[in-house]
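tool_call predict_complex ligand=HDE
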Amino acid sequence: MAKQNAPDHDSKQDQLSAFHRSNDGGGLTSNQGIGIADNQNTLKSGIRGPQLLEDFVLREKITHFDHERIPERVVHARGAAAHGYFQAYEPLGDTLSSASFLQDPSKKTPVFVRFSTVAGFRGSADTARDVRGFAVKFYTEDGNWDLVGNNIPVFFIQDAIKFPDLIHSVKPEPHNEIPQAQSAHSTFWDFMSLMPESMHMAMWIMSDRAIPRSYRMMEGFGIHTFRMIDDSGKSRFVKFHWKPRLGTHALVWDEAMKLGGQDPDFHRRDLWEAIDNGDYPEWEFGVQVVEEDQADQFDFDLLDATKIIPEELVPVRKIGKLVLDRNPDNYFSETEQVAFCPANIVPGIDFSEDPLLQGRLFSYLDTQLIRLGGPNFNEIPINRPVCPVHNLQRDGYGRQAIDRGRTAYEPNSLAGNCPVQGGAPRSFQSVATRVDGEKLRARSPSFADHFTQATLFYQSQSAVEQQHIVEALSFELGKCDVPHVRRRVVALLAHIDENLAAGVAANLGIEPDPDLSYLDDYTGTQPNERRGAAKPGKSPALSMVTGNPETIATRKLAILAMDGFDAAGVSAVKKAVSDGGGQCMLIAGSLGTITAEDGSEMKPDLSFMTSRSTLFDAVYVAGGEASAKAIGQDADAVHFFKEAFRHGKALAASGAAVALLQRERLPKVDYADSEQIVDDAGVVTVAGESVDWKAFTQQFVGSIAQHRHWERSGRAMVDA
Ligand code: HDE
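tool_result ok
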């Protein structure tokens, strides 16, 4: 199966370079290459006279500008992308898949990955509560494979025919185009209340998974069951997983909302900067494999995209890794014009009969035709495969290829019957699966259990994660202004978990009533029975607070300091954090140099005017009498560390700054009053004269690695 000229990591980049254009050192020309002498003034009749139609320079420039925009994606409009590579851990031809990119561990297959939100327009904020798209284009030697997944392993609906309804319900309401990039409105929850199959997904999007800390810190899933075919032609069912090396982490809702205004590009910037700094994001690629003859063993149907296979039932086998190591050169040419399509598949992989997947196989190519203006979008550089393309498709808008010869049909005797079917180094063959049955519009009864896995998800969450789900639902339904919709959603929640329903109902000021008879008027079914003896139980893999690596790599620390700060503490913290792979930013009252107690000087990176705690993972308030006093007198500075405290972030203070933390009326925490280091709920403090900075910073770094310290939120406020 080894191929000549197999692509390597650089092959896509080499191909793209042929299209690079730079203005470095170039003189200004029109698109026809005519030199332009004056780019400031139009051609006029007389110095104050009217412009002349003859002015081709003006007309060309304005005309091109007028046509700069293309339709944004109907969903997933807002996104950010990067180049990288995929590398398999071991050859899989014998045991799982004959796909060419899964055979040679030394081969780096180029990839382009686009992350996105779903509901918001192209200019909307990154941190909206939403599913995140996780779309990967593999440029393999056998053609492009697109794994167009999400960061949540299930979907709202079971059948593609409901997709336009779902999206119309979540997009801004049509009469006034409000609200932007939010599911917290009446039409969305009206639809959800009538769609019990969405309840499992509802748990995921109301969880912290829907407000990731970073694209680099979220899982990815292919969602549908696919097939993999080994060298002998044997087919198995698989589910695809991406597991981030940095662990799975989230923001808190208050933070996500604030970031929407403070830095709408929060995730886009984070991805760009990490790659720019050489902190290349990495995921492991995993598969859950089910033998086809074992597919009936579960209490759920593998073809139902509202279900997971719990990892405890079928473990995730890691088969390779994905590394993102290069930012795009041009957002529009690459990130905007990339066209993903689940139907782009390569030998060794195949589809399943999942009715949601089958609908997607049609939709993506169809939507590209309008979005990218015709059938030749495959020739846009970012979409080109790195292997040769030969076919008889011809013409159409924007055609780039100059097809030579007189035959554009097959079979032909005038051109040696080329391109010959089956003549490519490898050709795709659909798995021969038996499909026969009556023609009918119906849902399989094996899809009917909508609650067991919703309950499994909810009950597998830690207490604080459950609390966040209750709060998220209370927020969302609180923004829904239709009382019967609120009541109905609470009724559905009562079938997931009584405490969940009670918590949300209390916040909405209503009594939970589990009666679902209203559904009879809409879908005509009561499709809600739990299947067989299914016991929800718990799946630890579903919680985000377990199983994360203890690392502060790429985490951001804010150091708050003013004139008179304690330089020893600041230097020690800076060193410890950068040794752990994190980044520090010094924040002061202005961007002017600040002077330490010992006379040394430092230049702040940001001021309290240009930064907020939401942009950081942890905060250190530097010691030093004068510095602590000045921070205590600056409302923005005080707000900075109080807000970080409230969001459960690691917080440290030394010397005079400890009293500052104590002074603020925060939930009760123990603070140091001597050289003894105190770490209470992730607040690390030390006072006194001779501080052991090594021990202090070690403790603080450990606290940052915990990501958040939820135990604080359960504590009572300190009395005034
Ligand atoms: Fe998509 N989806 N989708 N979707 N989807 C699109 O294609 C669609 C679904 C996903 O970064 C569109 O090129 C239908 C599931 C991602 O460019 C469109 C159905 C999953 C992206 C479309 C689904 C996804 C899209 C809009 C139900 C996770 C962004 C623009 C049958 C497995 C890719 C475009 C990128 C984009 C249709 C459901 C993921 C309209 C009909 C399930 C990550 O074709």
